[in-house]
Amino acid sequence: MGWGTLFQVTDTARTLIAQCGSKGEWYGALDQLRVEVAPKCDAEDSIRFWGLALEGQPYPLSKLFLGDIHADLDGASDPNVSFFGQATVRDISQALDSNGRGFFEGLFTGKDHLDAGQIWFFEPLRDFFKDASAKGLAVIALWEC
Prior knowledge:
Number of strands: 5
CATH class: Alpha Beta
Helix content: 40-55%
CATH architecture: 3-Layer(aba) Sandwich
Order of helices and strands: EHHEHEEHHE
């Protein structure tokens, strides 16, 4: 079963993140950024359903969970890590707001492999990105599917 957590960080974190390749390097950067004390949004196990629902969607929704930069996808069972810069955070926030809950409910409806109950995550996700965007922050996602 998957899980995921999103963390708000300054956009200047990109400088540190851009030097990272392997997941181990990213985990070291997360320690330096002290994400454990950053504002966060817990996606619980909904992240895998949202990832599936958003497959094939245009930018910026296609960036959700993969971000602008991500750790090497090495096939290991270690959690994945992604960085969303300030501009992408703003674009995702606007897309969540303008599309609204009904659009996302439609992505879950009628798809056997998706659980419509996962729509609960819409409001926390929208509010988290709206808050980060208003503050000019970036986002880091730590997730496993």
